[in-house]
Amino acid sequence: MESPAPPPLTVAQSRAVDRVCLEDYGLPGAVLMENAARGCAELLDRVSDGNPGAVAIVCGKGNNGGDGFALARHLTIRGATVHLFAPFEEPPDADEEPGEAAMNARVARRMGLPWTDWTTLSEEDLTNRLAEEAAGGWIVDALLGTGPSGPPREPMDVAVRAIHAARSRGPRVLAVDVPTGFDADGGRPFQSSPDGGACCVRADRTATFVAPKPGFAMDGASDWTGSVSVVGIGAPPAAIESVR
């Protein structure tokens, strides 16, 4: 049984928690990312009765993607069958990109995990591959998280539509932190066309970090987030309270 959810934090406050952890407590971003990924693996394991089945993880280039790369490692350690859909054929080397996301991508690549550069696939091919690699299991949305302030742009919009189409064939979807394309403060997808159409991942579960976001409690939000679970990242309680 999960503990009661803490009070919500806005997207800006959630980012401030990361900054306070780094600047005031000296807690490295790599530690926060590691804790986030481990928590997502534990959640996926728990909601799947210890057998998440095949897991296709669709990553972006930023920290949300880094969570996905680290999650792939933790799920593999737990015995899951994982296929990574990465936004590049080879991760940048440490001199070119020393950040936590690139580090976790390099580790996943060196582990020899099944790997596809999704940016080279058409929307139809990506849909088919996701449905195939996640058959009977899960697709993980680790594309953008809370970073954007508007709808997904090319090529992310292609990945969002492919995830949506593949979900209709059976796999469930876990969103990492926030479904891509969802306004976590406003409680609805970002408008992506003049007619109000939405380019947004529709998740069965969302593993959000530190605290729920205000928009998750709004009418209709659960149609996009599914069930929301809060995953801790190891932030000291005082760091969280300092930005509330």
From TrEMBL:
Residues 14-241 form the YjeF N-terminal domain. Gene3D superfamilies: YjeF N-terminal domain. InterPro entries: YjeF_N_dom, YjeF_N_dom_sf, YJEFN_prot_NAXE-like. SUPFAM superfamilies: YjeF N-terminal domain-like. This is NAD(P)H-hydrate epimerase. Its cofactor is K(+). Keywords: Isomerase, Metal-binding, NAD, NADP, Nucleotide-binding, Potassium. It is an enzyme of class 5 (isomerase). The gene is nnr_1. Belongs to the NnrE/AIBP family. (6S)-NADPHX binds at N63, N64, G65, G66, D67, G145, T146, G147, P148, S149, G150, P151, D177. It catalyses: (6R)-NADPHX = (6S)-NADPHX; (6R)-NADHX = (6S)-NADHX. The keyword Lipoprotein does not apply. Pfam families: YjeF_N (PF03853). Catalyzes the epimerization of the S- and R-forms of NAD(P)HX, a damaged form of NAD(P)H that is a result of enzymatic or heat-dependent hydration. This is a prerequisite for the S-specific NAD(P)H-hydrate dehydratase to allow the repair of both epimers of NAD(P)HX.
